[in-house]
Amino acid sequence: QSVLTQPPSASGTPGQRVTISCSGSSSNIGSNTVNWYQQLPGTAPKLLIYSNNQRPSGVPDRFSGSKSGTSASLAISGLQSEDEADYYCAAWDDSLNGHVVFGGGTKLTVL
Amino acid sequence: EVQLVESGGGLIQPGGSLRLSCAASGFTVSSNYMSWVRQAPGKGLEWVSVIYSGGSTYYADSVKGRFTISRDNSKNTLYLQMNSLRAEDTAVYYCAREFHDILTGWYYFDYWGQGTLVTVSS
Description:
The complex is a heterodimer of chains A (about 110) and B (about 120).
Chain A: E1 9-12, E2 18-23, E3 34-39, E4 46-49, E5 63-68, E6 71-76, E7 85-92, E8 100-102, E9 106-110
Parallel strand pairs in A: 1-9
Antiparallel strand pairs in A: 2-6, 3-4, 3-7, 5-6, 7-8, 7-9
Chain B: E1 3-7, E2 10-12, E3 18-25, E4 33-39, E5 45-51, E6 57-59, E7 67-72, E8 77-82, E9 91-101, E10 106-112, E11 116-120
Parallel strand pairs in B: 2-11
Antiparallel strand pairs in B: 1-3, 3-8, 4-5, 4-9, 5-6, 7-8, 9-10, 9-11
């Protein structure tokens, strides 16, 4: 059971806008910034969004992130077939033994 | 160019030991926070351990007392010594560099290796 809660799946058609939610608590999302990682099939995770809404160089502006209270969300606009991947949210946790906690991942299918 | 290359995975019997390596290039391991993150087959990501630039180490409860993270500054390499391995340790193990800025509160994994598979089975 992951500390952060994500829907297991999401889907959309090319060109659509989809959002993926991530729910946590006061010790993680409520106290720290949220990051999102994209994992294409058979590859390592890649940083997609950091500090709630910042995009690393090279990440298209179709990807955006937001955070409110103890929840966060990732939005993908103008959905493309190459966006089909697993998406993970993550945040540092201030609890005694916490370092970083992840969501369980959301598998995005482009129909 | 930053690169992380893991090695050392394989098939090991329950109770056995294995040491994973993560060779870094393009930056200095000892000047950064470095973590191991694992992913069981078909499952999500799980943080395993971190070593701070100052040398402090921390572990997930699931591996505490069994795994040891370390680094060799002369080889610019990160290690994970895994003892008393269990079936539930079966996973792809990734090493990852942490961007860690206390002033801004920005903490994230900016570079990941390709991973090495550890299979614990008899």
